[in-house]
Amino acid sequence: MINYPVSDQPVDSTPQDSGSPDPYGRLGVEADASFDAVQAARQARLEEVGDDAIARSRVEAAYDAVLMERLKERQQGRVSSAARTASQREQAPQPSVRPALPSRPPLPQLPGARLPVAAPSLPRLALASGPLLWFPLVADGILAVLLLVVPTAPPELLLALATGVTLTTLQRRNGRFLQAVGWSFALLSLGLLLGSVLAGLVGASLSLPTLTLQSLPALLLLLIGALLIG
Predict the structure, then answer these.
(1) Which of 12, 87, 117, 170 has the highest CB neighbour number within 10 Å of its CB?
(2) In a 3-state reduction of DSSP, which class is residue 125?
């Protein structure tokens, strides 16, 4: 039996390059492939050839040739469809992604403020008692004496004081300030009107000054209102 010599050199099982003169063919991509496809093909070829220095140099040379050809095309104004698509994709405005804002908690609903409005009603007539009886009697009595006896006492000031007495009494009786103001003003106005009529009718026959005669009905109505309006 004849023994043939066996070589000690290991058999190279690394895939060999196709030997194509076209750099795209060496990389295994089309001429209109994108840059990312070219990069992926280069990496795949390098992994295929392993540590074979000659094969790796051929892959790198093919990759460099593709890059040089792409650069030459750009300089000459000839851009491949893949490069044009990639360029348009890079130049296209990217949609801005706004960060989601945390939702605000709902504000508590406050009840609507309602001011208590008293319904208009007729006054309740009732005679005051206790301090609310003697306070307007004494105060308005003193003011009436000053109005009739003291000629220098200004009627305007006395009527203002009498209005304040009536306002204070009505406020303490019913606890409604605005209503007390309204009744005091109404009684004062009606009294002054009656005083003007009285002064025009009997003013000439009486020796009282005109202002005093006009102020007496107003003072009297203020006193009656303080005593009776509940």
Answers:
(1) 170
(2) strand
Looking at residue 28, the DSSP 8-state letter turns out to be: T
Per-residue pLDDT of 41-92, as tens digits, reads: 889 888 888 888 898 898 889 889 888 888 888 887 665 555 555 555 545 5
Q: What pLDDT, in 10s, does the model give residues 171-214?
A: 888 888 888 888 889 988 998 888 888 877 876 676 777 788 78
Exposed / middle / buried, residue 124 (Cβ in 10 Å: 0-12, 13-18, 19+)? exposed
Distance CA 195, CA 20 (A): 130
Q: How many CB atoms lie within 10 A of CB 206?
A: 12
For the chain, the distance separating the N- and C-terminal CA atoms, rounded to the nearest angstrom, is 147
Residues 6+ apart with CB under 8 A from 66: 23, 24, 27, 38
140 vs 158: CA distance, rounded Å: 9
127 falls in which pLDDT band (50, 70, 90)?
confident
Buried b or exposed e, range 2-24, using 16+ CB within 10 angstroms = eeeeeeeeeeeeeeebeeeeebb
Are 140 and 226 within 8 A, CB to CB?
yes
CB atoms within 10 A of CB 221: 21
The Cα-based distances of 88 to 5, 19, 83, 225 in angstroms read 63, 34, 9, 94
Q: What is the pTM of this model?
A: 0.46
